[in-house]
Design brief:
Elements lengths: L2 H7 L1 H20 L4 H34 L17 H54 L7 H30 L10 E4 H11 L1 H7 L2 E6 L4 E5 L1 H20 L7 E9 L2 E7 L33 H12 L2 E7 L3 E9 L3 E4 H6 L3
Parallel strand pairs: 2-4
Antiparallel strand pairs: 1-3, 3-8, 4-5, 5-7, 6-7
Helix pairs in contact: 2-3, 4-5, 6-8, 8-9
């Protein structure tokens, strides 16, 4: 801070000393004191004013120097270390707290941006595979006079098209996940109906992989306060994993069970498969971004983002996700809805007029 700005900031103090000098001069003149004495008193007041201002300035000088030598860098806040008054100390403390909070958020934003870029690169690489298959299939058109060959050709195109659609849907949800507050629409959702719809939408994948779906529910209707669009996305990720790794198990007609049930703490939605399972050392890391583990080497479709995105969605919705797996036996993933989220079963819905 310059001396001029310092004096401007102390104008009330200067005004107070000036008022004291003028009032003293008027009073002494009224009492008949000599002019020399009046001048002396005014000079003495001026000396005290100058001394106080000088002492105040030099007391704050280290702090002013820290302000003066700012570099414009983001860490300038950490250079302010010489507060004098209690107010300045509190201001500096809050400045440091804000600085730390800002850099923590900035670091998290950068990590998220890096994860997003990595995911985009991985996604683009994976989308090349179905595009290449489709392009190759179009170059090698089947003999339409042979129905079996034509059906196999069309089924191959349909499979790769579904992979493209799934990839685009995952990318769209990953982009929306960055600002969930603008995309969440929480309302009463029938978990049984939603599970049934998701299974129907995966019908072709179940048939193609030779996996049998089975839906189990404690009641015809179990509702929870959630966002049906995001829960649908989560369930599709879980079903996709269950189908993919059940097909790798080599069993005859493996079953994927989707169960919706009530429990004392609320309700749960479970997807259990009879697939190859997950090695114990990989289980703690399955929700990390881009982690594919040992099983990821067995399929070209593994991105390591499905369960990560599912957990991010459920965390934002206030739900919990749990995973239990045994190699060679299968994997069970459970989504838990707290009691406060449970809206009603069939009877409760009728009672409240739904």
């Amino acid at each position: 801070m310059s001396k001029r700005r310092f004096l401007q900031s102390r104008l009330p103090v200067l005004a107070a000393f000036a008022a004291a000098a003028v009032s003293s001069a008027l009073y002494l003149t009224w009492r008949g004191v000599g002019r020399a004495d009046v001048v002396y008193v005014c000079a003495l007041i001026g000396f005290f004013a100058a001394t106080c201002l000088a002492a105040d300035y030099f007391r704050h000088l280290p702090l002013y120097r820290e302000f003066r030598f700012r570099t414009g860098a983001l860490d300038d806040a950490l250079r302010v270390r010489s507060p004098v008054t209690a107010e300045e100390a509190e201001l500096v403390r809050r400045l440091h707290d804000a600085h730390r909070a800002f850099f923590t958020e900035l670091a998290e934003t950068r990590r998220g941006h890096e994860r997003h870029l990595e995911y985009v690169q991985l996604w683009v690489h994976q989308m090349k595979t179905p595009l290449s298959v489709i392009s190759l299939s179009l170059e090698q058109t089947p003999d339409w006079s042979r129905p079996e060959e034509a059906a196999a050709w069309l089924d191959s195109l349909r499979e790769e098209t579904e992979r493209l659609a799934d990839g685009l849907d995952a990318m769209l949800h990953a982009a929306r996940l960055g600002r969930p507050e603008t995309d969440l629409a929480v309302r009463r959702t029938d978990l049984v109906a939603l599970a049934r719809a998701c299974i129907a939408e995966r019908k072709t994948a179940f048939i193609r992989s030779g996996v049998a779906p089975r839906l189990e529910a404690d009641a015809p209707r179990i509702e929870a306060e959630t966002d049906p669009k995001w829960i649908r996305f989560v369930l599709h990720q879980l079903l996709s994993n269950a189908i993919k790794y059940s097909a790798l198990a080599g069993r005859t007609r493996p079953v994927v069970r989707v169960a919706v049930a009530r429990e004392p703490s609320g309700a749960r939605l479970t997807v259990a498969d009879e697939g190859i399972g997950i090695p114990p050392e990989d289980v703690p890391r399955v929700f990390e971004p881009f982690f594919t583990g040992e099983n990821g080497r067995k399929t070209r479709e593994a991105t390591g983002m499905g369960l990560y995105l599912a957990k991010q969605v459920l965390d934002r919705l206030g739900h919990r996700i749990e995973l239990v797996s045994r190699p060679g036996e299968g994997t069970t993933v459970t989504v838990r809805f707290e009691t406060r989220s449970i809206a009603a079963t069939d009877d409760i819905c009728r009672n409240i007029g739904i």
